[in-house]
Design goal:
The protein is mainly alpha-helical and 251 residues long. Helix content is 48%, strand content 10%. The chain has one domain: Orthogonal Bundle (Cytochrome Bc1 Complex, Chain D, domain 2). It has ten helices and eight strands. The strands form four sheets. Strands 1-2 form a two-stranded antiparallel ribbon. The longest helix is centred in the last third of the chain and has 30 residues. It is globular.
Length: 251
């Protein structure tokens, strides 16, 4: 009994550790893997802005194109900028040694980042950059303090001139009911090409794509799971009566 209790304690302890770790508040983002246009836009954003440094080496271009409903020739022409073939893994040309010299550490592969960090964290992180002249790239992040990554989407969002309060409750005017502040950036030291709503939608699509990439078979698994549950429900009926028949003479 004592061994069982000790085992349970060690099994539950990591849960409390994870729950207490990380003090940053996050905004909520609910992925929709059935929204194919969103996934397509997210794939385009990732390819154009992220894949220069970050690979997705556990995925293949062909699988992504097929799942997202993009014709293979269109994907190869518009979303593969190297000499890679459509059937190859989504790797990058940057060597880890060079990346370490440039960034301090090689940028991580993002194949599983959607499961590791979760959509709320990724969505908040990509909207939390702000100007910080003390940092090597001139920016910091309200979710990931002293991050070594530059704000690669600065030309879209701009650069916030103050630390945004990600995850804060919106401040509402008590008379008009109008939202005065939602905790995100209110003013910019450098303007971007998108409005706040447009940038939020772009990040939603990007994170949606990353969540898909972390588990490409999820939609298929959920679809199959419904049929499995239906089969088990139907099977339960004859199994119940068969069990009843077997045990009817047992006293």
């Amino acid at each position: 009994m004592k061994k069982i209790l000790v085992t349970l304690v060690f099994a539950i302890l990591p849960t409390f550790t994870l729950a207490s770790g990380g003090s940053a508040h996050l905004d909520t983002m609910s992925p929709d893997l059935a929204d194919q246009p969103s996934l397509q836009r997210g794939a385009a954003t990732f390819t154009n802005y992220c894949m220069g440094c970050h690979s997705m080496k556990y995925a293949r271009y062909e699988r992504v194109a097929t799942d997202l409903g993009i014709p293979l020739d269109a994907y190869e022409e518009n979303l593969i900028f190297s000499d890679a073939k459509i059937g190859e893994l989504m790797t990058i040309a940057m060597a880890p040694g060079q990346a370490k010299n440039w960034f301090g550490n090689p940028p991580p592969d993002l194949s599983l980042e959607g499961r590791l960090r979760g959509p709320d964290w990724l969505y908040s992180y990509m909207r939390a950059f702000y100007a910080d002249p003390s940092r090597p790239y001139g920016v910091n992040n309200a979710v990931f303090k002293d991050v070594g990554m530059p704000h690669v989407l600065a030309d879209l969002q701009g650069v916030c001139d103050h630390k945004p309060e990600i995850g804060a409750e919106p401040k509402v005017d008590s008379l008009s009911g109008r939202i005065i502040s939602d905790g995100t950036c209110e003013s910019f030291s450098t303007e971007g090409s998108m409005t706040k709503a447009e940038y939020d939608e772009t990040i939603y699509d990007l994170v949606n794509f990353m969540v898909y990439m972390a588990e490409p078979s999820r939609m298929e698994s959920e679809s199959i799971g419904k049929w499995v549950l239906l089969f088990l429900i139907i099977l339960f009926i004859p199994a119940y009566f068969l069990n009843k028949e077997y045990w009817k003479d047992v006293h």
